[in-house]
């Protein structure tokens, strides 16, 4: 199994290093062979090659069976023009690999109830929400303009969705709901946006293929509030690129930390892109403080979705649960009475739990 490894910038290399060790441990235990090719992308690629996503990097990812990415970006590159920023590497990868469906599971490990931003009575039995974010369309990819006007500049970004794009992401979400609690909430801004009205219409159309799934619709502002008020009402959420970006960061805090949320980006083949939902965390980069669990849990998603290795995926998730049960915490999920560890130590602990 050929994995393109994009460490990226900031804490990206720190967390993906632990993930690579976890995958190697899984390989040894089960007799699988994972090969890694390091691929430059993001700020480091700008520094070395003058471009956030060199063509060779994209080609290498396309030739692989899966891509594992840390995160890209940082203050050093913040003043570059839009198309030359590190973040452009991510957009280029997502579009180039055709991974239009981004699965972001917000699952609260019961051991982290105290780390959740919510009160215990709101959390109840737990939180298990799957955010299905459309990833290759919407305002991220619509036409942009920047022009001089009297008194300064004028800038535009355009939210664009067509029927086909909405249908395919809706089907991913309905299929996911069928495997879970059969409830799907489509989140939009149909009271204002024409693109959202089309979104809602198409989702309702696709729902006819899934009579068992209970479909609801919610405006995004209300959804942001409902996630905090009563998160257990949600099973699967499907939404556009930008709304999904924002709502998933919000949902991560229900689970204790942004450092806990993995993701899988999938298209029509088994080649997937796996990355934590967090960024490069410049404030803690290089200090062995980053929580590697979001990245490690992303490798579990890789094993599940690209390699069909469900048992191995579950072993990683169980190992994470076991380490949390033993009371080990990185700073972002630390509580009094628990044992504070760094990035590397957390990696060691997960590997030890794999047995
Ligand atoms: P961020 O996610 O990097 O950090 C937000 C906050 O969460 C910070 O306080 C950070 O320390 C903390 N945090 C994030 N991940 C953590 C982890 N694993 N363990 C512990 N704490 C963690 O978001 P930001 O500060 O808005 O963005 C920083 C840079 O990252 C920007 O350049 C942004 O564009 C980029 N970014 C990249 C990706 C990606 O590559 N997938 C995602 C988001 C942001
Ligand atoms: C994410 C990030 C990216 C996004 C940025 C860095 C382009 O925030 O993966 O959530 O907005 O998709
Ligand atoms: Mn984001």
From TrEMBL:
<feature type="binding site">
    <location>
        <position position="221"/>
    </location>
    <ligand>
        <name>substrate</name>
    </ligand>
</feature>
<feature type="binding site">
    <location>
        <position position="221"/>
    </location>
    <ligand>
        <name>Mg(2+)</name>
    </ligand>
</feature>
<comment type="pathway">
    <text>Amino-acid biosynthesis; L-leucine biosynthesis; L-leucine from 3-methyl-2-oxobutanoate: step 3/4.</text>
</comment>
<keyword id="KW-0432">Leucine biosynthesis</keyword>
<dbReference type="GO" id="GO:0051287">
    <property type="term" value="F:NAD binding"/>
</dbReference>
<feature type="binding site">
    <location>
        <position position="245"/>
    </location>
    <ligand>
        <name>Mg(2+)</name>
    </ligand>
</feature>
<keyword id="KW-0028">Amino-acid biosynthesis</keyword>
<dbReference type="Pfam" id="PF00180">
    <property type="entry name" value="Iso_dh"/>
</dbReference>
<keyword id="KW-0460">Magnesium</keyword>
<dbReference type="InterPro" id="IPR019818">
    <property type="entry name" value="IsoCit/isopropylmalate_DH_CS"/>
</dbReference>
<keyword id="KW-0479">Metal-binding</keyword>
<keyword id="KW-0560">Oxidoreductase</keyword>
<protein>
    <recommendedName>
        <fullName>3-isopropylmalate dehydrogenase</fullName>
        <ecNumber>1.1.1.85</ecNumber>
    </recommendedName>
</protein>
<dbReference type="InterPro" id="IPR024084">
    <property type="entry name" value="IsoPropMal-DH-like_dom"/>
</dbReference>
<keyword id="KW-0520">NAD</keyword>
<feature type="site" description="Important for catalysis">
    <location>
        <position position="140"/>
    </location>
</feature>
<feature type="binding site">
    <location>
        <position position="249"/>
    </location>
    <ligand>
        <name>Mg(2+)</name>
    </ligand>
</feature>
<comment type="subunit">
    <text>Homodimer.</text>
</comment>
<feature type="binding site">
    <location>
        <position position="133"/>
    </location>
    <ligand>
        <name>substrate</name>
    </ligand>
</feature>
<keyword id="KW-0464">Manganese</keyword>
<comment type="function">
    <text>Catalyzes the oxidation of 3-carboxy-2-hydroxy-4-methylpentanoate (3-isopropylmalate) to 3-carboxy-4-methyl-2-oxopentanoate. The product decarboxylates to 4-methyl-2 oxopentanoate.</text>
</comment>
<keyword id="KW-0963">Cytoplasm</keyword>
<dbReference type="GO" id="GO:0003862">
    <property type="term" value="F:3-isopropylmalate dehydrogenase activity"/>
</dbReference>
<feature type="domain" description="Isopropylmalate dehydrogenase-like">
    <location>
        <begin position="2"/>
        <end position="350"/>
    </location>
</feature>
<feature type="site" description="Important for catalysis">
    <location>
        <position position="189"/>
    </location>
</feature>
<dbReference type="GO" id="GO:0005829">
    <property type="term" value="C:cytosol"/>
</dbReference>
<feature type="binding site">
    <location>
        <position position="104"/>
    </location>
    <ligand>
        <name>substrate</name>
    </ligand>
</feature>
<feature type="binding site">
    <location>
        <position position="94"/>
    </location>
    <ligand>
        <name>substrate</name>
    </ligand>
</feature>
<comment type="similarity">
    <text>Belongs to the isocitrate and isopropylmalate dehydrogenases family. LeuB type 1 subfamily.</text>
</comment>
<feature type="binding site">
    <location>
        <begin position="74"/>
        <end position="87"/>
    </location>
    <ligand>
        <name>NAD(+)</name>
    </ligand>
</feature>
<dbReference type="GO" id="GO:0009098">
    <property type="term" value="P:L-leucine biosynthetic process"/>
</dbReference>
<dbReference type="GO" id="GO:0000287">
    <property type="term" value="F:magnesium ion binding"/>
</dbReference>
<dbReference type="InterPro" id="IPR004429">
    <property type="entry name" value="Isopropylmalate_DH"/>
</dbReference>
<keyword id="KW-0100">Branched-chain amino acid biosynthesis</keyword>
